[in-house]
Amino acid sequence: MATTKLKSHTEGVTPDELSLVRSYLLLTYIHKVFERDCRVIGKSGLFKTPQLYMELVSSGAKKTSIMLQEVKRELASHDLKITTVRQDQRGVEAQYMCRGYNGEMSILWPVFRREMMVRMRAYLGLATELSILNREEHAEQLALSI
């Protein structure tokens, strides 16, 4: 679960602005993952047609890049600045300043990874239903469909 800790007045930051901070964090990490995966696919030598997979992952990276630019524009238009992004064994944390209000958003790894997977599937044009099922439910559903 994401926790948002505001160090000043909470009425100074809207839910939409908090959503922008969250999107910034997710898009930043997703973009890095797509770029890394694209490099690994290209260099691995394990794929017969690496260009096909690189094209798919690269298209996801391009989408996240465009969306990240838009989120950055929105952050600026709301006078909202991400001052620090950190990660540790618990999750990802961002400190931000919005019209003079300092705040902090923390998202635990399980929640962050789950939302990353849902978004990554969407950016790659994949069905999102499977991302909601856990492994046991997925295995059971596959067994029932055979």
TrEMBL record:
Domain of life from the UniProt record: Bacteria
InterPro entries: YhjD-like (IPR058600)
Pfam families: YhjD
Descriptive protein name: Uncharacterized protein
Biological source species: Paenibacillus albidus
